[in-house]
Amino acid sequence: MVSMKKLSKNHQNFFLSFIRYGCIILCIWFLAFPSNTSSATTIKIGAINPLSGGLAKNGIEIHQGIEVAVAEANEAGGIGGKQLQLISRDDQSRPDVAISRAEELCSWQKVAALTGGYVDSLVGPIAAVAKKHRIPYVASASLQKELVQHKNEYFFRVSCLQGFVEPLCGILAQRFKPQHLAILHAATPGSVELAGELERCAKAHGLNVQLIEKFRPGTPDFTPLIAKLANMNIDVIVSGGFTPDHILFVRQLKENRISPKAYIGPFGIAYESFIKTMGKDADYLYSTCAWNPGITEPGTEAASKAFIQRFSRMFNQQPNTTNMHGYTSARALIAAMQAVLYNGLPLTGDNIRIALTKLDLVLPMEHLAFDKTGDPLHYNHTVVQIQKEKLVVVYPSDRAAEPAIYPMPPWDQR
Prior knowledge:
With 414 residues, the protein is of the alpha/beta class. The protein is 45% helix and 17% strand. It has 14 helices and 14 strands. Strand 13 (382-387) and strand 14 form a beta hairpin. Helix 3 runs parallel beside helix 13, helix 4 packs parallel to helix 5 and helix 13 (321-342) packs across helix 14 (349-357).
């Protein structure tokens, strides 16, 4: 090797410049064309959820379900010999942050697909970014009809509004037949649409919808509304609020000794945490439930048990219906990607999208297949009642474990 001392000064400068510029060129090359060693052995799935902010509890539950699905697939050998890599981002319960997180995952992380999402104000912006980048997005929790009315062939979801409306309308029209029905709803898109659809269905069945009333989520006092309900002799209340709203509403019903024949909260009641908070005051309340430990799609008992066991090992707690929504959305993506690779096709966004349109998958929460808009074809809740501090299916009859206790007894007779 030639010693630097033997080189002339000009040669030394040339040699050092060559090394310097050669290093720069190599750095540019690696930045522009990064090593694909990791991508050759893993498949990236992006998950965006509200892990902080006002919706953090629900977002974390969705994320836990997704983690279970990914762990299950990886333990079974992955997909096509490749392990799944879950890349999670927090949208902080803010739509603007959801957009930036989606851009990051689609543009920089180059994920194969997206899942997660809680409430349509967050799901909608993510869906728009996914469409722009031609990346399939399977939302875990979404109800707003508008999201499937604007054509977005990359958007799919495992829940829909009709899954709530049909069982609610059924039990009202066939079992309760109230003389004076009140439908209350929170000032959120999903709750507003639920109230409207339920009102139309109830009236079509000849029910007297005497009151439609909106309230703000987190309302600090329901006493004026309760007085209004009492004056109108309302016998059945359907309230599209959320867990904190139900806790306050029911407590104030008891304080004012108002005992409707039925109180139904489609959202936020069918949770063990709600029952623990309310204790015996939770008894006789109604809700809807797509899945819960002990409440599963017929024929999926073994799969449901396996999910519960895996979830309990991973998180040292029992899963709930929100966890199952996250699991179901991730399972949809995994099944679609498996189909693409099984057919010897590259794992592109369009190939995954096409596979999702052909999906036919029986899972504990639902028989999952999508219609042309991306809505699930078979998403249906059961109506549950809390009896002796346990969730019991009371409708439809082919799923019922016990008859509904109707009317519910007055507060002073419990």
